[in-house]
Design brief:
Chains A, B: InterPro entries: DgcN-like, DgcN-like_C, DgcN-like_N, P-loop_NTPase. The structure is a homodimer. Chain A is an alpha/beta fold. Chain A has eleven helices and 13 strands. The N terminus of chain A is likely disordered. Chains A and B meet through helix 7, helix 8 and helix 9 of A and helix 7, helix 8 and helix 9 of B.
Chain lengths: ~350, ~350
């Protein structure tokens, strides 16, 4: 099941579809979350994947060249992998130019602007193709006001990056819609924006405007409407906590769900930085979040149990729920535990 | 006593010195705060001042033309005044071009970019001079690593914006140097950058790189060296808390000093947002700051008592110190209370 297009937020991009997913020469699955997100939530709009020699990561789609993808209807190559710092390595350039020559536009969510790479810019101009940076924030973002807005808001937060905040928000928005509730997934990162067709690339916003960008992302709404907002980073992340805090303050969530991957011990890419406890994340999120919404509360826990057997996952979910006194579920597995989590978020 | 030139931050902004202070045609002293700050804290690196006809405000330096300033060693003209809206009026252009023609670069902390003014851009290109916007971050800021760096660090934090975090850091750096301690003022905003001749405009940094920018601002140093870092915003500010958190995480302070203005009740520009208590600021700063420096502690309180009589100021300082069980002082007033605050920061 895919997520409907919610292209109702200022700054929305219209991306050429279907996509060919580009995996570069990546060997670390955690860096391919864009590709996995598009496969899972916009799979009907992905014709295949394209990897360079040396890559060991796959999204499980049919491997094909850019020319084969174009013949199957693809209209853009989406860069489905990230690097630390968001740079485009030299080793990718020839493959990206091959895509332009095959008739595909290029869509990127990386920090580096496609058009800043001379070889890509020249090839795109020569071939009449587009270079689309999803990470470029819209113009005119205001300073945050802190003013209360109408409607209900749920924010996913986490013990780290890359462990399920986007998937959890997508699944909760889908679950609320399945109950007949008017709910909108709000994307705060590049993959989410590609899935939803709209959103705010929070980590690319100039810091003075972070809260204002989050306020813009989930605008005033009817009292019974739910915005389900994709979280970013973690308040405990040594590099990205400020993005998390700007999103928390500007989102003014009524409810937050803590996302966690059982078994992860250290912050991804920062060995030696121990993962915070879920209890610590709940405490800090309430302590900071009550500044802009004094009624903020934790709705429950979302566990990424993708690496576990069904039995082990069920045991982890039960153990976390009992220890914390809160509903816990893996939204990707769904089931009664997930329905109880939705109940708690709505209560 | 002025603060020494600390233009040693790798990769951060570094400004050509000494300065000629430009006062425009300003008639309102409140608009010349930058010039007064430079006079007070970088007076030995200001060769004189340059005002246009109609100006009634003086920083008390020797009046001179750009050519005279260049002959006395000046290497840049610093715009020391602000206008409503942060624009550069047409009436300034001829004077600024005269400075470029005299061999001076131009340094601006205004919102408007110097290079966006065609006449200035063309003159600078023709003459081979630089237009330096202090609000524009340097290129190549990395993602924060969270890695421990050598040396000691002190960060000023606050209950709000615009209540003395820069002056407190300047005064503490001066006080430590007066004791023979190797201390460096690290500027995180435009006026501080002009005073120090180097620094990082934190509020203009893209949010993903905030902690990395703060790490760059206070690099690895000898074990007995102190960086005294100018704080930004407040962890409780509904618009700017994320800037404060990125600076806190990246600075990894051993000691922080809480800056407060007695009598201020609401966040500046956000009526209805009550000022946090000093106790709450201490608690949150430790809770968040211990993530990158588990040894973080509060060194004391800096009170901005500029609006009070000497007797009322002394009473406020004593009352805060007794209530909190911490040294409190107004660094601008100095005296034994300030020396006790320095003792506590060093202990």
């Amino acid at each position: 099941m895919t997520i409907p297009n919610d292209a109702t937020t200022a700054g929305a991009l219209a991306l050429p579809q279907p996509y060919l997913l580009f995996l570069g020469d990546t060997t670390i699955p955690g860096y391919a979350k864009t590709a996995f997100g598009l496969r899972d939530w916009a799979g009907d709009r992905c014709v295949g994947e394209f990897a360079l020699p040396g890559a060991t990561v796959s999204a499980g789609l049919t491997p094909m060249t850019p020319a084969e993808a174009h013949a199957k209807g693809a209209r853009s190559l989406v860069i489905g992998v990230a690097n630390v710092g968001g740079v485009i390595p030299d080793s990718w350039i020839a493959g990206l130019i091959a895509a332009l020559e095959a008739g595909l536009d290029i869509v990127s969510g990386m920090h580096a602007r496609l058009g800043d790479i001379a070889a890509l810019r020249e090839a795109a101009e020569r071939l009449g193709r587009r270079l689309i940076d999803v990470r470029k924030p819209p113009a005119g973002i205001p300073v945050g006001s802190g003013a209360k807005r109408g409607g209900k808001r749920l924010l996913t937060v986490g013990t780290d990056c890359a462990l399920g905040k986007k998937y959890t928000a997508l699944a909760i928005a889908r679950g609320l819609r399945a109950r007949g509730i008017d709910a909108t997934f709000r994307a705060s990162g590049q993959t989410g924006i590609m899935i939803a067709g709209a959103g705010m690339p929070m980590d690319a916003v100039v810091s003075d405007f972070l809260s204002g960008a989050a306020e813009m992302l989930s605008p005033d709404a009817p009292a019974d409407h739910w915005d389900v907002i994709e979280g970013q980073g973690s308040l405990f992340h040594p590099a990205y906590a400020s993005v998390s805090l700007g999103l928390l303050h500007g989102s003014q969530p009524d409810v937050f769900v803590v996302c966690h991957e059982p078994g992860r011990t250290d912050i991804l890419g920062h060995p030696g930085y121990a993962l915070p406890s879920i209890e610590a994340v709940i405490e800090q999120t309430i302590a900071m979040g009550k500044r802009t919404n004094p009624a903020i509360r934790c709705g429950g826990i979302s566990l990424n149990t993708g690496a576990l057997s069904p039995e082990a996952a069920e045991a982890e979910i039960a153990a976390h729920s009992e220890r914390l006194g809160l509903p816990a579920a893996d939204p990707i597995r769904g089931g009664p535990a997930f329905e109880r989590l939705l109940d708690a978020c709505l209560s």
